[in-house]
Design goal:
With 562 residues, the chain is α+β, with helices and mostly antiparallel strands. The protein is built from 16 helices and 24 strands. The strands form 6 sheets. Strands 6, 7, 8, 9, 10, 11, 12 and 13 form an 8-stranded mixed sheet that branches. A 4-stranded mixed sheet has the order 14-15-16-22. The chain has a 4-stranded antiparallel sheet with strand order 18-19-20-21. A hairpin with a 2-residue loop joins β12 and β13. α5 crosses α8, α9 crosses α10 and α13 packs parallel to α14. The longest helix is centred in the C-terminal third of the chain and has 21 residues. The N and C termini lie far apart (75 Å).
């Protein structure tokens, strides 16, 4: 069996600093100081590791015991920070052609460039090399992108074959699929000026993804000539992505799609969900906070997004996060095109501004009914029922209910946002709480009307299972309203967090967690407003509808004109 030895990763670079040295690789770095001899030890260690050393050899790098101990400790630090890698001994130096008979992999040794690549990025280069050769790759498609992909795969040592499947020119023009035998695949498409590469995924999902990406880029079926640079880059990038998956390498760009453009020639990564998910009525809720936080970036991406960008600009981000989105040319309840979002932090504000933009764009298909957009069905239904309940009691007036002194609400979130409103911002506000139904409390925060001296106006409201939670969310909305109106007068169409909302960040700002009470609250509100058991899923105009299916957002309406 072939033995292995420790070597420096090829990407490691060293810089001498005052009293030590700084080491860096493609994804890590290490600074050592406090000993002027460190640079000399580093030079000595690199010479010792040039031909590779076994684990036992690392303890005997010098005939002088103090120097050997210092070199071993330095090598141990390099191993801890992933700057050393274990490489088969027959890969070392220039011995690529001298492989032992029992060497594993598609060939005894990888080509020199592939060996350097794997030694630079792989945790176990030998296992990665075996993975590249274990799964044969089938290339379906024709043209310069397919040719470039085959050449790149072959040069990397993969086993490649062309598919005998007949290509449908109207449907598959310019599209090339690279599929491993285990089902993992990547799809690329290109014209003379623009191309794309999907993330690595399962074959059945990728056709839908590639069609959405091509539609988003306006990629037609224009023919490409042999050697067309955009197609060559797209095909080579597709091969690189699949090779990385076969080698079990960590890809820091996933889940993204690559977009290739010709002027200037470049390939850039853009957010793209890893799979197509349909918001069916019986679909399970998805509570992936990292995905939720990335939704604004995905939906508003300049290349692949379908919404205008969410702007922060000069909006204040303390004491609450504020974000806005300009939805041009869309009539809606805002009487304009500006929508906003707020939250305890910027990430939450960006998400809710995105949801507000989706709601405004869905008005044309939702009719006069109340709409609500959420990251999943339970979120959308929770927002919808709160809005229906608020409208059902609006005729009673914003000051109906019992005026409660803020000292009665000692929960951390309620106390934090009420004090922020009344003490930090100095707003002489009042809060009124009203029981709407068993387990359903309405809180309304009122303050001075800036447009009517002596008048009062509603600054924020919330409906939650407990009075503490309702006061907290209403006060949070009031703080956002005050912050927004100090920056720009006018009542924008806004969206903010409630008890049904996901947490999208690790902000230390307190926000009530009513997830355990949410199901019971929705049942009470459904009885209160007489809503049907199943709200209707709204299908926004294309291509927004396809984008929402991709990322899992859901838009609901009550099912009638109320």
């Amino acid at each position: 069996m072939s033995t292995s030895s420790w070597q420096l990763r090829p990407t490691v670079q060293a810089t001498r600093i005052d009293g030590g040295l700084h080491l860096r690789s493609w994804d890590t770095s290490l600074t050592l100081d406090g000993a002027p001899q460190l640079w000399r030890l580093w030079q000595l260690l690199t010479r010792r590791l040039a031909s590779g050393r076994t684990t036992a050899d690392l303890r005997d790098l010098s005939p002088r015991p103090p120097v050997a101990l210092a070199l071993y400790r330095l090598a141990d630090l390099l191993r801890e920070h992933d700057l050393l890698v274990r490489v088969p001994e027959h890969w070392a130096g220039t011995g690529y052609a001298r492989a032992p008979a029992d060497a594993c992999g598609p060939a005894p040794v990888p080509p020199p460039a592939v060996a350097t690549w794997l030694a630079s990025v792989a945790t176990d280069p030998a296992a990665s090399w075996t993975g590249i050769g274990r799964e044969p790759v089938t290339v379906t498609g024709a043209g310069p992108a397919a040719t470039a992909a085959i050449e790149a795969l072959t040069a990397a040592g993969a086993r490649v074959r062309r598919a005998a499947t007949r290509i449908d020119p109207p449907r598959d023009a310019g599209r090339v699929t690279l599929a491993a035998s285990d089902g993992r695949a990547v799809v690329t498409g290109a014209s003379a000026t623009i191309g794309y590469v999907t993330p690595v995924g399962l074959g059945p999902q990728l056709r839908a993804q590639s069609s959405l990406i091509a539609e988003r880029l306006g990629l037609g079926s224009a023919a490409t000539a042999p050697g067309d640079p955009v197609s060559v880059v797209a095909g080579a990038c597709a091969a690189h992505r699949l090779l990385g998956a076969l080698a079990e390498l960590t890809d820091p760009t996933e889940p993204t799609a690559l977009v290739v453009r010709s002027d200037p020639l470049r390939a850039t990564a853009h957010p793209w969900p890893p799979g197509v998910r349909s918001p069916a009525v019986d679909a399970p809720d998805r509570r992936d906070d990292a995905v939720h936080a990335g939704l604004p970036t995905s939906l508003t991406d300049p290349e692949l997004g379908v919404l205008p960008p969410v702007e922060l600009d000069d909006l204040p981000q303390l004491p609450v996060g504020l974000a806005r989105c300009r939805v041009g040319g869309v009539p809606g309840p805002a009487g304009g095109t500006l929508v906003t979002g707020h939250g305890p932090d910027t990430s939450t504000a960006r998400l809710h501004a995105t949801l507000a933009a989706v709601e405004l764009l869905s008005v044309s298909t939702g009719g006069a009914a109340v709409l609500a957009c959420g990251v999943d069905r339970s979120h959308a239904e929770g927002v919808l029922l709160r809005r229906l309940a608020r409208r059902s009691v609006a005729s009673a007036g914003v000051t109906s209910g019992e005026a409660v002194p803020p000292s009665a609400f000692d929960a951390p979130a309620a106390r934090r946002w009420w004090r922020t409103l009344t003490r930090r911002l100095g707003v002489p506000a009042t809060v009124h709480v009203r029981r709407l139904a068993p387990g359903a409390q309405l809180a309304v925060v009122c303050g001075p009307d800036t447009t009517d001296p002596g008048g009062w106006m509603e600054l924020g409201w919330a409906i939650e299972a407990t009075a503490h939670d309702a006061v907290a969310f209403a006060a949070l909305a009031a703080v956002a309203t005050v912050g927004w109106r100090a920056h720009r007068p006018g009542p924008p169409y806004s969206h903010g967090p409630c008890g049904a909302s996901p947490r999208v960040s690790r902000s230390t700002a307190p926000v009530p967690d009513g997830s355990e009470r949410e199901a019971a609250l929705r049942r009470s509100l459904r009885t209160l407003v007489g809503a049907p058991a199943e709200p209707i899923v709204v299908t926004p105009p294309a291509p927004l509808a396809a984008a929402l299916r991709t990322v899992g957002l859901v838009v609901l309406r009550a099912g009638d004109d109320r």
